[in-house]
Structure formats: C-alpha cells, structure tokens
Design a protein that fits this description.
Nicotinate-nucleotide adenylyltransferase; Maf protein; about 35% helix; Rossmann fold; single chain
C-alpha cells in the first residue's frame, strides 16, 4: 500500500550557493531570468556564485507597467498567474527561436520568471508572488513546467527579497536535478528557509517530464510537509490558488471524511446554502461551496494512505466539488485562513453531532483563554454556522440546534450564540437523508450490500464500482 513517508528528505541537500553553482557548471542548462518586483533576487545568486555566463542567456526586470504590458501583453493584475504564464511562454519561445538552431543539440533551454509584491513602504500590501520555470529536461525535449505561489512572511522587505531569492534557486535547481522525483523536489523548495518565512500554498507540475504526476498528491504533499496550512484543487484535478479562487466571494464550507460522499453531504450543503444565500450580505452573489478534509482526518489511521485519499478526492470530484485539504483541525484556524482571502461572508455547515463536539472543552485546553478564546476567534468576522439535524438512531429523536444539549456551564454561551444568529438551523432538508451515515455506507460497500448505492449520488456509485474504491465488493 503506497503511503507518504514524512521523514523522506532530499539526498545530500546543498546550500543555496552550491545549488546555484551546480546549475551554472552544468553545460546543458541555458536560459532566461525575468523578474517583476522585489528586484533581481533569483538571478543575483547565479551571477554571484560565478560561471553565470554559461547559464544566463538574458536577465531582465520590467518594473514599469506599460513596459511590462508592451512585452507580455496586458493582464488583469500584475501579480497573478496569468502574467507569470505569459512571461514563461514569451521568454522560453524567444530562447528556442533564437538559439535552437545554433546549440539545440547540446542545450536544454529554460525560462525562469517571477512576479512579486514584496512589502511596500507603508506595509499595507499582501506580500506574495508567482514563480515558475519552463524548461527542457534534455536537449530537444518537449517542454515541462513548474508553477508555485508563495506568501512571504518576513516583516521586512529586505528579508522577503532574500527568502524569495533562495526559494527561486531551489526551484531552478529542483527542476533540473529532481524532476524525476517530484516528491523530493517539493521537499527541497524550502531548503535554507523555514515555514515561518515562506509559505507555498500552490504547486502545479505539467509537461512531458511530469506526465505521470498527479497534482492532487503534490497539493497534499505541500500540507503534509508543512509548506502550507492548506491547499486546493478543482473537481477536474486542476490545482487552485486560494486567493484567486476565493477572491471577493462568499464561502460555504463543509468539513467531513467523505468516505464516501453520501446524499446527506450534498443535502447538507444545499440546505445551508439556501439559508446562507438569504443573508443581506450574500443575496445575489455567487457562493463558493467547498468540501474540506483535514490532515487530522487523513491521518486517523496513522500515515496517509494515498489510494484512500485519491478515492475521496475522486468521489468529491464526481459531485463537481472543489476540495480543500487543510491542517486546521480547530475551526477558528480554518475561519482565519478563509478570511485572509475574502472580505465577504463565510459560513460552515455541520451536523448536530459535530456541533456538540465544538462545545467539548477538551479541544481547547492548550488555549490560554480556553473555549471562550476559541469562539471569540471563530466568530470575530461574523462567521455563521449552519447546523444540519441529527436523527438519533437509538431514540428516534430529531436533534436540532434548537434542542441540542451542551454542558450546563456552557448553556448560556450556547444560547447567546444561537440568539445572535451565529448558529442557525438548516430547516430545508430531505428526511430520507437523515438515516444515512457514512460509516454505515462504508460498511455496506465492504460487505457487498448493494443497498449502499441508493445512499450516494449516482456518479459517486459509478466511480466506486469502476475503481473498486473503499474495498468495494460486488453483490
């Protein structure tokens, strides 16, 4: 069974100086560095270590917007994926057009580019950037490409620029030395840095060298290694960058194990969205709905089982849902993460059982302010919780947020949040879905009980049967 090995490290890691020199001394590598914003921080390393003439065909920086537009075409924003891709395509094509006939048999060409917004003078901007490399793994080879999105966490612009230079060298060196081992390549991106300085929340591999790479697994790897607190991908497997996907949109999240996605999961989202969309702050706007899996859930049985992860990803994809993988076990950390990317309303939908757990004080013992601190941070940006009812299988009682019982000492806090409208009931629900529990559906799948197929969306059933997910046994 294939599992991630979290202790796996890149062999003989080199420092930034030696990585840049290693690239410069490789006679096959020759290309362009194009950097917008934060100075020529990456190419500076290749000039500084010596031997740059054998590697650098051209180095350029287009700070002026009109100059940048004249070279690469207009873009909606200057620090965005669209601009980065235009830079990579343009510079790589120029290298091939100008140099392929002269030295194409012995040279593997590349174009490195980044477009970055480092800390401004007033410290008021989002410090982030897009960085990528388009390259030939071997002379005359078809193109391959790696794109990453970084968030710079240092307080000073000079430190951000330094960190940017290091991660850029790591990316260039990794593309050449580790393209055949993408897991190690990801692992090497923060060599010489720490997660307190740089966060990488998106990575995408494409092209011939990465034709067997599943970018969903690479997204998982980012979170697994702690390079990012969360990563996202769309239902078609395309990697998503949160700040662009969530930009100016209301967000509705459902957290779960999704082993598998059942009818009740979709009914929960539908019912919550129906009520969430009626809020004055949300009415008439496009609500982004996301299914979230936490690393805590994925590691429930120990190490992450990649086939199990892909099974969950595929059944969510069958429902057309984007997937968020997060290391935010506590809901207030998830709320803080989402509020980083949108000023619009945010909502979380959960079952009554999960709402009971939210009021379990054992989860907040490490917080100085305990459960009060947790709820203060959770609801500070007017986040809403939508509670889906629970049908108690023993008593037959319908548990809703109105009759849910918490510890007596927390009862006033609970009803305060209820009265303020922070916690809301999902009133529109399908009674047939109340009898569906994913653990029971999973048991039926493993035991060959065909009635499970009526409890999941039809596309989900097809995926499970076709790929034999969740130990599927035909009846």
């Amino acid at each position: 069974m294939h599992r991630f090995n979290p202790t796996k490290q890149s062999p003989n890691p080199m420092d930034t100086h030696h990585k840049a020199l290693d690239v410069n001394l490789d006679p096959r590598r020759y290309g362009t560095f194009a950097e917008i914003g934060a100075g020529q921080e990456v190419v500076r390393w290749f000039f500084r270590v010596g031997g740059g003439a054998g590697t650098i065909a051209k180095s350029m920086s287009a700070y002026d917007m009109k100059v940048s537009d004249a070279i690469y075409g207009r873009a909606s924003r200057y620090v965005c994926r669209e601009r980065l891709q235009a830079m990579l395509d343009y510079e790589h094509r120029l290298n091939l057009d100008r140099l392929r006939d002269v030295r194409g048999d012995t040279t593997a060409f590349f174009a490195f580019a980044d477009t970055v917004s480092a800390r401004n003078f007033h410290g008021t901007n989002e410090c982030h950037g897009w960085m990528g490399i388009k390259f030939q793994a071997h002379p005359r080879d078809d193109d391959s490409q790696i794109i990453i999105h970084v968030r710079m966490l240092d307080e000073e612009a000079a430190l951000q620029q330094e960190a940017l230079g290091i991660v850029g060298v790591n990316l260039v060196h990794g593309a050449f030395a580790l393209h055949h081992e993408p897991e190690l390549l990801v692992d090497s991106l923060l060599d010489g840095l720490s997660t307190s300085r740089i966060e990488i929340d998106m990575i995408e591999f494409s092209g011939i060298a990465f034709r067997h790479v599943d970018n969903r697994l690479m997204s998982l790897k980012l979170v697994e290694l702690g390079l990012s607190g969360a990563a996202m991908f769309a239902s078609n497997g395309e990697v998503l960058q949160p700040s662009e996907f969530f930009y100016r949109k209301p967000i509705l999240v459902e957290r779960g194990s999704f082993r598998p996605v059942c009818n009740v999961n979709l009914d929960m989202l539908r019912g919550a969205n129906e009520k969430f969309s009626q809020l004055p702050s949300v009415a008439g706007k496009e609500v982004v709905q996301v299914m979230e899996i936490t690393m805590n859930n994925l590691k429930a049985a120990g190490e992450i089982d990649l086939r199990d992860f892909l099974a969950r990803a595929d059944v969510m994809a069958a429902c057309g849902m984007p997937v968020l993988i997060s290391d935010y076990f506590r809901y207030f950390r998830l709320a803080a993460y989402l509020s980083r990317y949108t000023k619009e309303s945010i909502a979380i939908t959960m079952g009554a059982g999960s709402l009971m757990e939210l009021f379990d004080e054992q989860y907040y013992t490490s917080l100085e302010g305990g459960i009060l601190e947790s709820f203060g941070r959770l609801f500070k940006n007017d986040l809403k919780i939508y509670c889906y009812p629970l049908l108690d299988p023993q008593t037959g009682q319908l548990v809703t947020c109105e009759n849910l019982e918490v510890k007596p000492e927390l009862s006033k806090l609970y009803h305060y949040l209820l009265d303020r409208g922070e916690i809301n009931a999902v009133e529109s629900y399908d009674p047939d879905c109340l009898k569906i529990f994913s653990r029971e559906v999973l048991r039926m799948i493993k035991n060959g009980d065909p009635s499970w197929e009526t409890m999941v969306p039809q596309p989900v059933a097809e995926v499970i049967k076709t790929k034999n997910y969740f130990d599927y046994q035909p009846a």
